[in-house]
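Per reviewer request, we include the raw input and output of the structure prediction for the construct analysed in the revised manuscript.
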Amino acid sequence: MTEISRPPPRPAAPQTQTARAREKPRAEGARKGQGAKPADTASNRPNLAADSFDRAISGTTTVPTRLAVTAHASVRFGAEGGPVVDGELRQGGRLTVEYHPQRAPLRAAEGGLPVWGVTGHVRFLPQGEETRRPALEFETMRGRPTNQVRPAPFSVDIPLRATGVELWFINWTRATRSQEHHDDNHGERFRLAVKPAEKTAGP
């Protein structure tokens, strides 16, 4: 059997200078990548909102306080007697006034139309902020006011510096002879105290 001789393998070609130049930047890039910091992306940033929430619920943050402005009081003047207060009069709150028609003794009409009314006065102390509003409203028939009346409640804001409030009413007529009747607690006016605003926890 005859052996076939094969030529010896060729030695690897020496690396050229150009190839070595290409390999050097790759190696340097790999070494630099080992110590490189990750890119500043949204997924890598700390969640400050979540951290603040966690601190709040864990009791490590101080919750500020704010003034409560939802206090509301109603002052009703019935057919007789003094005012009846429902709720609390507080600085920064709301006051609603209601007046009963039977407290008004003066009434008059001309040409079938009423020429009288009741004006409610609210004055806060000590600054003297004053509001005037109609305390009664007339019922209508076919678009014309009649002499039948009903309460017309009105509301005012209580100033932040108020310490008290005065209320009084003037029943007036504008008929042939003008007249006035003052419903003002015999000249002393109806006076009520205003409490300081409440403080409540809030954002």
